[in-house]
Fold Mesoderm specific transcript.
Amino acid sequence: MVRRDRLRREWWVQVGLLAVPLLAAYLHIPPPQLSPALHSWKSSGKFFTYKGLRIFYQDSVGVVGSPEIVVLLHGFPTSSYDWYKIWEGLTLRFHRVIALDFLGFGFSDKPRPHHYSIFEQASIVEALLRHLGLQNRRVNLLSHDYGDIVAQELLYRFKQNRSGRLTIKSLCLSNGGIFPETHRPLLLQKLLKDGGMLSPILTRLMNFFVFSRGLTPVFGPYTRPSESELWDMWAGIRNNDGNLVIDSLLQYINQRKKFRRRWVGALASVTIPIHFIYGPLDPVNPYPEFLELYRKTLPRSTVSILDDHISHYPQLEDPMGFLNAYMGFINSF
């Protein structure tokens, strides 16, 4: 019996000795290489500096002679690359098509420790427009998910008529949790947002398998991303060790609850043209609860509901439907 216990202890010691270097190697595994398409996206973009931090952005010149500018605000946990399927279509309508990777996302810097906030992301958008010399131009905002919350803060500042803020011509939101009470975060988001001491461990243990299993369910059953598309998303997250700041970025969920009156109030009293493009199969912003509250809160807003199998990433799942809905809105005023 004593010998058996000793052998069992020795076995666990051997397992531990083997596991330690394997775990260490895993935690320091390099990020995946960029696909040719993602590499091209990065190469065609630029960086500007905001308070010592590098922010990646795209800025394409489209229709010559048009004064129209559209600024695209991406969602969590991905990047400006979310817009690539509708990018060319937008350049056929707008003179300037601009998108950025928010701080902590994509190819932008991902400082840690850092207090990530919606307020800072909004200030970065304002700084980018100043950097491009467009601070005095009227811009159209097109946003998705996390970007919807940033757009709400930009709208609040615009309504306050503060100098140096964006002048917003129109706003189009899409599948964002603008109402805390109808937002249904994923299990992994809940764990990372409220995990305390567990969060740093979870972020280090996150891998492509965990990421893809967590993200795929927010797409429709017929419009799920291919494995190569998921790898592009994961490569953007892993760039600059972005998986290690996901728990910090997710504090926006708590910020949204705390500042609900400020951000929902900015939408409710809006006077500019506003539109919402909605993938109705979205488990994060479920139908019909979300849409009923949206229409009640923003009766002046128009809404485009895409096909019933389109979910949380409408610009990727149904790019033509999304683009047609947006162009219909833009051409209506």
The chain has a mean pLDDT of 91. The longest strand covers residues 53-61.
